[in-house]
Structures are given as C-alpha cells and as structure tokens.
Design brief:
six-stranded mixed β-sheet, four-stranded parallel β-sheet, TrpB-like_PALP_sf, alpha/beta, globular, single chain
Length: 294
Amino acid sequence: MAKTILDIIGNTPLIESKTLNTNPNVTLLFKMEGHNPGGSVKDRAALNMIREGMEKGSITKKSKLIEATSGNTGIALAMIAGIYGLDIELVMPENSTKERVQTMRAYGAQVTLTPSDIGIEGARDYAEAKVKKEGYLMLNQFANEDNWKAHYKTTGPEIWRDTHGEITHFVSAMGTTGTIMGTSTFLKEQNKKIQIVGVQPTDDSSIPGIRKWPVEYLPKIFDPKKVDQVIEVSTEEAMQMAKRLAKEEGVFSGMSSGGATVAALKLAASLEKGTIVSIICDRGDRYLSSNLFD
C-alpha cells in the first residue's frame, strides 16, 4: 500500500493505439505519464532532483529554491517541495496557461511571470540572476544529472519490463531532454539495437514542452549520441494530433504529446514491423484555457 503521494509517482500504464496506428505489423504503445499525481512525466525528475539534493545536503529546509519552467516541471516541483516543507519560487513566461499558474500556487509555490516575448530563455536568465545576487538555489533541470537519472532509474526499466523486452523504438519530445537521455541510456544497455527518436519543432513552429534550443541555451545534460533520429513536427500537426488523440483514442493530453504522436505515427508507417513506445507526457486539462481544443 502506498504511504504518501510520492509513492505513486511512476509505474504509469502503457496502452496500445487501436485507431491512429494503421500499420498492422507495428505495435504503437503510449506511455501515459499524465497518470502521475502531478499530472506529468516531470514528477519523476522533480522528485529525484529534490530527494537527491536533500540526501546530499545541497538542499536543506533553509534553502530558497528557484527554477525556470514552462509549466509541468514547475507543477511537479511545487507539489514535491510542499510535501518536504521547502520554499520555492517558480519563474515562467506570462503567456503560460492560467491552469498551470493556479496549480503551482495551489501547491504553495511563489510564481513569478516574465515577459512572454523573451520566452523560457528569459525566465532562465531571471532565475540565474536571483541565484547570483540573492542567494537562491536553482535546481537547474537543464544541467542537473538527477533529471535524466530519474528516467534511467524508472521510466526505462518500466518500459523494458512492460514490453517484455520487445521494444524496438522509443519516441519522446525533447525539452530539457531528461526523459530521452535517461530512458535512452537504460534501453541501450539492454539492447543496443533499440532506436531512440527525438521530436523537435520545425523552425517556424512553437510547441509548448518541445524545443529546438539556441546553442547558448542547449541543456547541458543533452548528449546527441544518445538519440538515433530526430523528427521535426509543426505546430499545426501537433495541435491536430492532440485533438485526434482525445477524440479517437480517448487520450487527453497536451500539444507536446500530440507532437510526439505525429512522429511516432510517421515512424510506424515507415517500418515493416516493430514495437514503438511513445511518451504521452501530461494531461490535457491544463490547456483548456488555451486555444488547443477550440
């Protein structure tokens, strides 16, 4: 029996696509990360970063934590910091959906909104300035090894176990890249032939949760050698697929999950046979105030 909410992070279900995937020789499985208590895959990394920091002594009850986020990491950090009695300030662009902001505040976090025209890069700059000038401690999901190690410890092993080692391809959106880095590391140790496919937006597209970072902001945890192929997806493709996921598969998720599914379906159509696992990184209810489902 679970003792706390933290004990039900992970072990999310795999479900098979029965409608969108039309290749009868390919199994497409969705890893349903919205089933985590904070509603996204980021619960895993947030828990590992905070727990490891506390065990190492770099995070204490006196720490003033700060983190820039586009949303899901912030929600996860707010939830877990609150459980541990830690103070945290979360910095995000002002065009973030109100559901995300309200959820973080409900968990007890201080939320600071930065101008939307400077994006998540501007939020990162703001957080880094407070670290330098005011003694804040940044978890720094973009450079924190405990981000990707969360997926090495949990996501990868779960996928290997639940597919009985039959997975041939893994598909994930790339934001901080923690999910794809950790899962790739584990799966490649089990079978080097497993193909790791990352998803990025096209140059003219903006998809929350998926980024093509400028060189100076590229996550330090990212290792391109751990990704075998990158598939680019447009904003329109990602939006339409998020709608189709909800309507045709009953999978209610955000735009980044739509983008990952577009890539997974393109991959499935190109294969003679295989078993693909694609990450559905969150739930759609935190996008209802946006135009995603209009």
